[in-house]
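Team,

Forwarding the record for the chain on the shared tracking sheet. I've put the sequence and predicted structure together so nobody has to dig through attachments.
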Amino acid sequence: MRYPIINRSSWLVIGAALLVVGGFLLNCKKQRIPTGQKNTENRPPKYEMRAVWVATVDNIDWPSRKVLSSEQQQQEFIALLNYHKKLGINAVFVQIRAAADAFYAKGNEPWSEWLTGKQGKAPEPFYDPTTFMIEECHKRGIEFHAWLNLNRTTHKVSKSISSENIGKKRPDWVFEYDGYRLFNFGLPEVRDYITEVTANIVKNYDVDGIHFDDYFYPYTVTGQTLKDEAAFKKYGARFKSKDDWRRNNVDLLIKQISDEITAQKSYVKFGISPFGVWRNKKDDPTGSDTQAGQTSYDNLYADTKKWSKAGWIDYMVPQVYFSTGFDKVPFKNLVNWWLDHTYGRHLYIGQGAYRVGGTERDKAWLSASEFPDQMRFLRQQRNVTGSVFFSSKSLVNNKLGHADSLRQDFYRYPALPPRMAWKDNVPPRAPQNLQANSTVQGVELSWTAPSPARDGDEARTYAVYRFDENQNPRLDDPRRLIAFCYEAQTRLQDRTAQRNQRYTYLVTALDRLHNESEPVQINVKSK
């Protein structure tokens, strides 16, 4: 992510801002469409990625400080999740590896300085933050995508470097650039190492996705030189230019990681969040109608368009952190370019929530209408299947009420992360033995779990829909969704049922990738 590294203040303000999540959720914790086709239906989407980045580097989002106890860290993360759940967020992309370090126990890299204050120091009392975060997310029906930084062994703001840091153990694998120590992707052993680190996370943790940001080769800095000449001489003979060789190095790494994720757990999603501009049209007729000073292809040596086309990744999240009125890189121009290059994979738009209310040269961000206008535009594009916001702290701060617009308008009704038919298109079997009991407290529903689907998947979530007597029961309208029951819970008490009303309830089962079963139905008159 391209963002300023600034020390962050305490999260105490969050606790005061949180409200009880739930209400009626008591007892329950596309096919490709031609570009340009608009979503003209008034119905809110039932499937939409609604995610937020949670940055840990330099304590941007979590934990708020290096000196917190394990209990304080856990309390902060729970508060963060509860806040985002209330907004309608259904996935978090949490940075668990920021600079060849770890926010997880089951690995060989040292504990992160931004977790405990000193790289290599374990949490006290001991716990595994990633296991904890995943469990808390899944209790709330929130996907957990493990966000890893690929290129850094040492950040320029690092205060401590462990003797176990790979950059110290293998100095021949890294070079210095602009105050960072960075991996040399031209070395096969470096690519193997990064792939092994990623595969270890997939193997040992119940992650829903693996996610990388825009840092491949570094952004160009005037007067700085990438010191990879020796590797180029050894491995780059067949390439016409060093630039082509560097792009190939990143291609090899992405393909290698993609294959390893699929081999470990085929249901785990793999996504990339590149800098928003692949190439400018002036440099390539297939590029976007933009005038970006740097591009993913030319400066970071990341041919992100190629990865989607080749099917190596499941979703792309271009960082379109520009306003609709920015002359060099207009928001809509860039989104429209990405719409032409989805290749059947998911496109989520990375939105710069941190810029809302800013006073930088992109003055459009000073308008309270800029953020909701972007959301309305994205909702009109059927091939845009969601948004990811940078970052958590920005949504919490809620400048100009932009987070309120999510809670009250765009995310007012629930949505599931989009299905990925290329990974799994087999729905679960329907729930069994649906029963309803009307009491003075409401309508009590219960059911039993179905047998595994023909692919062996079990139901992980149940969706409960409610319809009035004169309504036609249908599953495509999330406004009729009254609850999700997570972690295979099979009971719900609907306390929002009105007295002496006749209702039809539908209950469906969903698997890990949100394929939905046929419904079971029951009619009941509430007391």
